[in-house]
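pls ignore typos typing on phone
2-phosphoglycolic acid + seq
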Amino acid sequence: MIAGNWKMNGVGASLGEAYMIAGGLGDTTARVAICPPATLVQRLAEVLADSAVLVGGQDCRPEASGAFTGDVSAEQLADAGARLVVLGHSERRAGYGETDELVAHKVEAALRAGLEPIICVGETLEQRRGGQALAVVTGQVRGSLPDALKGKAFCVAYEPVWAIGTGLTPTTPEIEEVHRAIRETLVAMFGEAGRGVAILYGGSVKASNAAEILKADEVGGALVGGASLKAADFLGIIQAA
Ligand code: PGA
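k done
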């Protein structure tokens, strides 16, 4: 899975980039997704209807509907054409105080609406320097993944907070250490089914480092921010997969 997270970037004119991405997939065997801002989900789903590129949301509220000004539900994303949703991104955890418990409720909402969740986890630089990276990440996996995921399709994305948008990336052994710990946790939680879950890496993935990252042990794809905004950059990553 190579998923692009456009964050709060993109207007109607950006749909052309998505169109070029869909047209440039070539013979990739990777699943490819674009998660645009909520304003573009429907139009992007229309543009990509005949392509293999999936459309995803970037967040959802646990409730299906109601008096929640400014929020979007999983049902609304699905109705607009989304098939996936990114949940628990560190920009939501840090900026909106999202806890593991809230993320788990959002995951349940996504499943209720038929969306495949991509659940993000990752440590801060302070936590890594304090030797807590594995404990923090595996704790987030345990706390953010509800039992309702049993038998369902989902991905986990390991995104070290200090690597997001900074140009910094962990070394391959550092990535592998965390991905193996996430795998062990998934197997402990979901049994053998936990082995089939794709664990994506995210944080400053670009065409020039994608091949190296994607061949690392237990890395099953990438969640890409900045480098997913331009077709040429994103296609370079997809081709490395
Ligand atoms: P970045 O963002 O690729 O711009 O570092 C990744 C993410 O936040 O998903």
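The chain has one domain: 36-63+71-227. The chain has a mean pLDDT of 97. more later
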